[in-house]
Structures are given as structure tokens and as C-alpha cells.
Amino acid sequence: MQKQELAYQDTKFTLDTYWLDPISDFDEPVEHPLAIICPGGAFKFHSDREAQPIAMKFNSEGMHALVLHYQLAENGKNVYPIALQEMATTLNWLKSQQETHNIDLSKVVLIGFSAGGHVVADFNSIMLDPEQRKNIFADKLEVEPAANILGYSVIDMTLGWPKEESWSKQVAPDESYWQAQAHLTEHAKPTFIWQTVTDDTVPVMNSIVYAQKLNDLKIPYEMHLFGSGGHGLSLSTYVTKHPNGGDYNIYDYKWWELAVNWLKLQRILPEI
């Protein structure tokens, strides 16, 4: 893993990069899809459990992976719109890295967990609509994502998380950023959604309202709601399990296999 620092105007941010090396005994280089991961952490921190372990799983499927350390609500700063500008800057930066790292720019996937899922959902809703984007990001968006994966994501900050409206205002003083589903348009990309119905932090209705709006717009999606398990499961295996217990459910780890199958359906990963 290598750190990469980028900037949007006067805001600096960091990527963790997990590049796949070329296979030396191939006659020609192979272009790989790429995953950009937004970990959760309540907009207070970036959870390591949803960073490197997820990135390396994507590597194992033949995808480059980046972890985006998007703007947090700290030191008097707000998350929005800076986090969306950082994601757009990251996507545009990929164009300069295409030949160096053999990236298939037509197969970039955004991955979001919990609060990081809100960043991805808002990007899919707001930033892929040219009319909405021009008010936030002055530059041309050179690279667009092909799809999204949302894990137990915050979608609507009026549906049970956060508990305090004051924190929502700290995240985004402009309330138009609070409800990602409200800004979805026909420009949005296919989305895979998973969560547990027993999530005790982010109510499952968050996933449902986003899927409903995607459905209304006839945008392809797949949603899996598991019948047990708490919040923040990450891979839901021993790899991301806290040493003191929790964050592990033998019934929910199947989400990864389902997501990979869906990426094959989207022709982002090969079928064999």
C-alpha cells in the first residue's frame, strides 16, 4: 500500500492505493477494473475495518483498489460538499494514472459503508447529474463510475441516524445533502445494496428508500436484506471481527459473493 496526496483547491486529502502489479509473463498488459472505497466511521473517523481488508478482497478479484480518506466533520469543517469534490478529483486523477497502472476507466466502482455509503450515494445522486454537479464542481468530470456498492449505508439523515440534528448540521449545514435518494436522476449508475434488518445503528429503511427511488427511475439495482446481524459488519468474517467479539455473523458474509456475482452481471468482472 502507498499513500497518495491529492487536493481540490485548498483542501488536501489522502488515498491509500492498492495497485495490482503487471504479470511479467504476459505478452501484453491487462487493464483492470478499480474500486474506490469510502469507509464508515460516523463522519468522525475512517474505519480501518472497512479499508484495507476490503481493498485486498477487491485485489483478490483482479481489481485495483483505493481507499478515499474523505473530509470528516472535524476542526470546524463540514463533510459536504468537500467529500463530493474529493471523490470527483480522485476520479479525474485516475485518467493520469491509466497507462501507469493499466486501469480500465470504464469499470470504476464506488464502494461505501455506513457514513461512507452516504458519500457514495450522494455522489451517485448529485454529482452524476450535470445540472446539479455544476454548482459543486467546476471542472469537467473526466471519469464516471460504472456502478456502486452500498453496505449498511446512511442514505437519509432524517431516518434515524444521526440521533442529533445538530450532528447532521455539522456534517452538512445545507440540508439538501441530507437525503441522497431525493436527488437521484436517470444519470445515476447501477447499485448493489446490502444491510441487515436488525441494524441497530442505521435503520434498514435507509437502504429501502434508495432502492425504491432507483426502482422508480428504472436504474438497475440488487438489494439483499439479511435477517440478523448488527451494524458495521464489514466482511462479516473473522478477518474483520473485533477481538472482544461482535461484528461477525456467519449468515451475512455471503454479501461478498453476491456482490462479486453482481459485478459479473454488470460486466465489470469477467464471468470466468
From TrEMBL:
<keyword id="KW-0378">Hydrolase</keyword>
<dbReference type="Pfam" id="PF20434">
    <property type="entry name" value="BD-FAE"/>
</dbReference>
<dbReference type="GO" id="GO:0016787">
    <property type="term" value="F:hydrolase activity"/>
</dbReference>
<protein>
    <submittedName>
        <fullName>Alpha/beta hydrolase</fullName>
    </submittedName>
</protein>
<dbReference type="InterPro" id="IPR049492">
    <property type="entry name" value="BD-FAE-like_dom"/>
</dbReference>
<dbReference type="InterPro" id="IPR029058">
    <property type="entry name" value="AB_hydrolase_fold"/>
</dbReference>
<dbReference type="InterPro" id="IPR050300">
    <property type="entry name" value="GDXG_lipolytic_enzyme"/>
</dbReference>
<feature type="domain" description="BD-FAE-like">
    <location>
        <begin position="31"/>
        <end position="214"/>
    </location>
</feature>
